[in-house]
User: What shape does this take?
Amino acid sequence: MLTSEKRAILVAYFSHSGNTRVTANQIREKVGGNIFEIVAVDKYPTDYDEVVEQAKKELNLQYRPKLKTKVESMQSYDVVFVAYPNWWGTVPMPVATFLSEYDFTGKTIAPVCTNEGSQLGRSVMDIKKLCPKSTVLNGLAIRGSAVKTSQNDISKWLRELGMTK
Assistant: This one.
């Protein structure tokens, strides 16, 4: 059983519209630890159709955008919550960059996905491919339109993972 009192926790998130930021902050409030925003150097368009098209192109090319900031002392964390929107059935490419830039060997990764109906898609499987020497836990999918009222779902999931009582 994982207990948050005995683990060094990082909540890393990528948020385009703000929904995933809300979810990441809700998780951090419940488990503690540090929070880190995954931000691409080049900003994404604000227009929905434009960002959808760019995300599709990046995925098809397996493009890894450069990130603005780095996690200090990644090696000190035992548990990393990775929160992201579901883009084309998987993690956005900035999250793929994040997962590729660090050594997650021996770490526990807890995926959290905001979506509008596509749930986790293949994102958990893709995270396992990017971090084959880590333990990837069962993920949580939260409907983007319901993030502000998802505290009970988050609490239940964290209890199931053994992160809270």
In short: The chain is about 35% helix and 20% strand. The CA atoms of residues 5 and 137 lie 18 Å apart. The helical segments are 19-31, 48-61, 93-101, 123-130, 151-161. The chain has one domain: 4-161.
